[in-house]
Amino acid sequence: MSIPLPWAATTPVKFILFGDSITQQSFGDSDGSGWGSLLASRYVRRADVINRGFSGYNTKWALQLLRSVDDSCFPRSPALVTIFFGANDAQVPEVGNIQHISLEKYETGLRSIVSFFQQLNAKHIILITPPPVNEDDWLACLREIQGNDSALKVDRRNEVTEQYAKKCKEIAADLNLSCVDLWKILDSKPDNFSDGLHFSPKACKLLYEELARIIDEKMPDLAVRGDKINSDSTSELLPLGPWWDQIRDAETTFGNKKQRTE
Prior knowledge:
- By secondary structure, the protein is of the alpha/beta class.
- The chain contains eight helices and five strands; from the N terminus they run βααβαβαβααβαα.
- It has a five-stranded parallel sheet with strand order 2-1-3-4-5, with helices on both faces.
- Helix 2 packs across helix 8.
- The longest helix has 18 residues.
C-alpha cells in the first residue's frame, strides 16, 4: 500500500550565513547556543544552513574572497543569505588600521557583496548591522592577548561603530532588503558578550529570535511554525523524508519518489 505523504526527495534549500567572526562562531559550542545553530535547528531537514564566517574580515577582504574562491563555495540560488559585516570595518583607525575600512568604502563594499549574491540568484537577503561593543571588556581582552600592555587603547568604540550600523540600515532600506538592527535589540552590557565584542548565548538568542521574526513576517515561503520533529510543524518548505508520525506502520511506503539504487 502506498500512502501519499507531504515530503521532499530533493536536496533541501540552502541558507548562507556570510560574515566575520561573529558569524564564524555562530554555530557555538556543543550546547548549540550559537545563533547559526539555533537557525539550523529550526530548519532541520528543510534547509541546509552553510556557515561562511571569516574571522577578522572586513568588507574589502570579504569581497576579494567572493571574487577569488571556486563557485562551489557559494552555491547558486540560495533561499536565504545573511550578510553581517562592519564590526571590523569600524576599527578605530588611529589605534589599529589593519582592519579599518572608511565609512564610504564600507558602503561601497557592502553594496557589492549584496550585488554578488543577487547575481547568484539569492531569493532573500538579510543585512545585519554591526553590534555595539562593551569597550571596557574588549580592552581587557586585548590587553590579555597582548601581554597586559597597560598602554594599549581600545580599538572599537561605540560612537564609531554606530555610524557603520546606521549606514548598513540605510543600504538595506535603499535596496529594499530586510535588516536586523542590532542596536535596537542589543546594548553594550557585559552579559551580551563573551569578551566585549563576540556574542554570549543571550545575544545569540536575541539575534536568532529577530531573524526568525523577520523570516516569519516577511518571507512566508520560508516560515516554519510548530514542532520541528513531527507533522505538527507547518511550512512551504517540505521536509527531507516524511515525519515519523506520518508513517502509519512498518508496511507503509513513501509514495512515488525516486528510489535510490544500490
